[in-house]
């Protein structure tokens, strides 16, 4: 049987304080009592969802990336989350998947949340990525990406779509609904890890981190509680579903073009 075990950390974060947030996630990680293959943190886990990119950015050689590498090596699992990264004079909302051998896969958020001005403070990612972990193909996405189904369209190239988010309370119904839609339409597992609490801009978050199966059932629903939730996904079962219900064979034939 082919499986992947995830750990989802849903918690409040500290506004604009990477040192405090690394310490906060240290405590959550230290509470893990059983092994996982991948531990998932929310979007911008070290700062909160900030438009202060110039003052809050780190580099790929900075302390938070080094912390992720050290934790992944110590735990013997992969670690994932997004943070504010400066590279080549630009700022990115960058999702990192750090492997336990120190390798780093990166995806820069493609769809920037213009209602908060994200498009004015961050450069857009220029590519759709698929990561490999323990034989499982993972499509990484960040928050607002969830609203754009063409970008996450399964081309028979991934098994799990993974969203890290700071998704606000007023649009919680959209979060829950679209996670299920992305799982069903793509015949994949959909994982969404959101945060709790109120950020420095007064925006409130309800959590609702979840893992949704390929037929739309909620395998995990974290509700509005702080939690570290562990779940094992059965990829052999997913393969069987795709064989018996091959809706992917009737999809429309087109190619996604991404403008520079």
Mind explaining what this structure looks like?
Helices cover 23% and strands 29% of the residues. It has six helices and 14 strands. The strands form three sheets. The protein has a six-stranded mixed β-sheet with strand order 5-4-3-2-1-14. Strands 6-7-8-9-12-13 form a six-stranded mixed β-sheet, with helices on one face. Strands 10-11 form a two-stranded antiparallel sheet. A hairpin with a 5-residue loop joins strand 10 and strand 11. The chain starts with a strand and ends in a 16-residue tail after the last helix. The relative contact order is 0.17.
Number of strands: 14
How widely separated are the two ends? 41 Å
Largest sheet: 6 strands, mixed
Rg, rounded, reads 17 Å
Low-confidence stretches: none
Q: Encode the helix/strand succession as letters.
A: EHEHHEEEHEEEHEEEEEEH
Number of helices: 6
Share in helix: 10-25%
Q: How does the overall form come out from the CA principal axes?
A: globular
Write the layout of secondary structure elements.
Blueprint: E1 3-10, H1 18-30, E2 38-40, H2 53-56, H3 63-75, E3 78-87, E4 90-98, E5 104-108, H4 118-121, E6 131-133, E7 136-142, E8 160-164, H5 172-186, E9 189-193, E10 196-198, E11 204-206, E12 210-212, E13 218-221, E14 227-234, H6 235-244
Parallel strand pairs: 1-2, 2-3, 7-8, 8-9
Antiparallel strand pairs: 1-14, 3-4, 4-5, 6-7, 9-12, 10-11, 12-13
